[in-house]
């Protein structure tokens, strides 16, 4: 199976190919169609198998179809640790290269004021740890 059979948009496929990937991993192959269909997914796989891309890639495809509202995030991703939140942000930046999306990362240990300014400008994707999200809202 290849990525182009999973139902991802052409912009996402182009980003995946430019990142050097040609075949989805088993977790991606199983999860991506369900995420595109707006179904909940609970997946378990080893480190390095592409779990993050399993939800980032279809989310990018779905975000292409929606319209942004003024200053309102279109998606919220909660991560338990700063490291995982940063990993998700990096994936959105890598695979969303062909999209005009703004991403905000809200984690502790980083300037609260800088994060607040970014939120005030409006973001499409909001990635946060629970504690920092509560600090802001």
What does this structure look like?
The chain is mainly alpha-helical. It folds into two domains: 65 residues, no CATH class; 71 residues, Rossmann fold (3-Layer(aba) Sandwich). The chain is 48% helix and 9% strand. It contains six helices and three strands. The chain has a three-stranded parallel sheet with strand order 1-3-2. Strand 2, helix 5 and strand 3 form a beta-alpha-beta unit.
How would you name the oligomeric state of the polypeptide chains in this document? single chain
CATH architecture of the largest domain: 3-Layer(aba) Sandwich
- At CATH level 3, the topology of the largest domain is Rossmann fold
The structural class is mainly alpha
**Most strands sheet:** 3 strands, parallel
The domain count comes to 2
Nearest-integer average pLDDT: 94
Level-1 CATH class name of the largest domain: Alpha Beta
- Total helix count? 6
Radius of gyration, whole Å:
15 Å
Beta content comes to: 5-15%
Succession of helices and strands: HHHEHEHEH
| CATH H level, superfamily name of the largest domain | P-loop containing nucleotide triphosphate hydrolases
Report how far apart the termini are: 43 Å
């Amino acid at each position: 199976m290849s990525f182009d059979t999973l139902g991802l948009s052409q912009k996402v496929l182009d980003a995946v190919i430019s990142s050097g990937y040609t075949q989805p991993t088993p977790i991606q192959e199983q999860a991506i169609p369900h995420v595109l269909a707006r179904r909940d997914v609970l997946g378990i796989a080893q480190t390095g198998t592409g779990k993050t891309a399993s939800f980032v890639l279809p989310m990018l495809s779905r975000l292409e179809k929606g319209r942004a509202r003024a200053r309102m995030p279109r998606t919220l991703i909660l991560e338990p640790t700063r490291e995982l939140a940063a990993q998700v942000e990096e994936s959105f930046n890598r695979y969303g290269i062909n999209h005009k999306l703004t991403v905000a990362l809200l984690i502790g240990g980083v300037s609260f004021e800088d994060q607040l300014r970014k939120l005030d400008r409006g973001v499409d994707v909001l990635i946060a740890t629970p504690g920092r999200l509560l600090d802001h809202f």
